[in-house]
Amino acid sequence: MGLFYLSCQPAFGQDLVFHTLEEVLFFAKENSPEQRIRALEREKEGIASRMSRTELLPAFRAYGTWDNYLQLPVQLLPSEAVGGEPGTFTEIRFGTQYQINLGVEASLPLFDPELWSRIKSDRLRYQMGLQELSSKEQAWTEEIARMYFQVLLHEESLRLAEARYQLSDSIFQLAEFTFQAGEMEPLPFQRIKASALSAQHAFIRQQKQRDLAKSSLTTLIGAGNQPVGLSEKIQSLATKEEFSSYELNSLPSWRREELALALSQQAWKQSRASYWPKLTANGRFYQQTLGNNFNLSDASSFEVGVWGLSLNWTIFQGNQKRLKTKTAYLDWQIAKERQLHTQQILVEEQNQLDIELRQNQQLVNDFAPLQVLYEENYRLAGIQWAEGQISTDELLQVEKEWIEQQQEYLIALSDLFTSKALQAIRNQSYTETP
């Protein structure tokens, strides 16, 4: 793998040259900012999943309070109870003005089915989050594949435009020589000149489209300002027959629906678990200091320790729990239908992709020899026109036929490589990080 990576590295001042689509994707996954963002998002999802499991561990809390009672509570007692005059009452104040409390508390859930079910749901949500990231990565890689084939397509268009420009320019040079010698009328000369200029402009436009596609590919893969070059030729790819052979259950959308079904089922189980009671163990230890003077260093203090169990069981809540359980059950049934619907769509997409690959491949195979034939026709028409065997109208008509054939050929190539881009990405396997 290291040698593979080094083969994509440019020397100083040279273009970054890739030989296959796999090399482009490997470089993009190592250097693209989007891929680094997804890696950080995966790490974040993992942390969120681990946070939910911490609720099963003991919880400890330390606390401290300092209180200053500006007025203590008063209770009236019969005076004779404290040795006073019968029939009268004496004011008794309870407590001290200053109090300090320092302590620790601990709690541990012993029996909480709803909590355990929620932790399982959080784990499924974590896996769902990973599948969402995998779906984004698949869309991103498909975009890179489309742009890769688009660059190759523009280079093929540039090659055809250059061939037309060279032939048109050769005929124009001959027409210009003939016109200057006074052996050609102005209108035929002007038409041939216009055709040559049109071919030149088409060649320049194709150069611009190729450069723009390369720039977009450079940005997608994170190559920065380094020029990118592709050594693969579209002719070799066009003759290579490929068919959609990917496994449907390896697609992120397929696995996402499976996880959505499992998550909805777990949510239904969690809603039913809310009927069960919750048992928690609690413990508390604290020290309390009491005094009527601000300085409590010599005041009375005592320690208290206590532990116990708490049981919480909601018996009736206005039929709310039953309705929540019913809603969760319906969500589970909806998830089942959505999973079935998604699987049907993915099967149909695979069948359509297979049909498109076969038919587009056949069209390109049929167009390839026609391109050679139409180019040769234009070359022969140029020779016959120079020898005076055909008119300028016939020459330009042959050129028009060649241009139309080029356009049909490029459309077929575009359709073929759009299908190849989807097939190339979907044949890859996607696995989430555990």
Care to describe what's here?
The protein is α+β, with helices and mostly antiparallel strands. Helices cover 62% and strands 15% of the residues. It is built from nine helices and eight strands. A four-stranded antiparallel sheet has the order 2-5-7-8, with no helix packed on it. A two-stranded parallel sheet has the order 1-6. Strand 7 and strand 8 form a beta hairpin. It is elongated. The two termini are 23 Å apart. The N terminus and C terminus are likely disordered. Pfam families: OEP. Keywords: Cell outer membrane, Membrane, Transmembrane, Transmembrane beta strand, Transport. This is Outer membrane protein TolC.
Name the structural class: alpha+beta
Name the helix and strand elements from N-terminus to C-terminus, one letter apiece: HEHHEEEEHHEHHEEHH
Shape: elongated
In round numbers, the mean pLDDT is 79
First and last CA, distance: 23 Å
**Helical proportion?**
55-70%
The count of strands amounts to 8
For the sheet with most strands, the description reads: 4 strands, antiparallel
Q: Looking across the biggest beta sheet, what order are the strands in?
A: 2-5-7-8
Strand percentage, roughly? 15-25%
Give me the number of helical elements. 9
Q: Segments where pLDDT lies below 50 for 5+ residues?
A: 1-13, 429-434
InterPro entries: OMP_efflux (IPR003423), TolC-like (IPR051906)
Pfam families: OEP
Subcellular location: Cell outer membrane
Organism: Algoriphagus confluentis
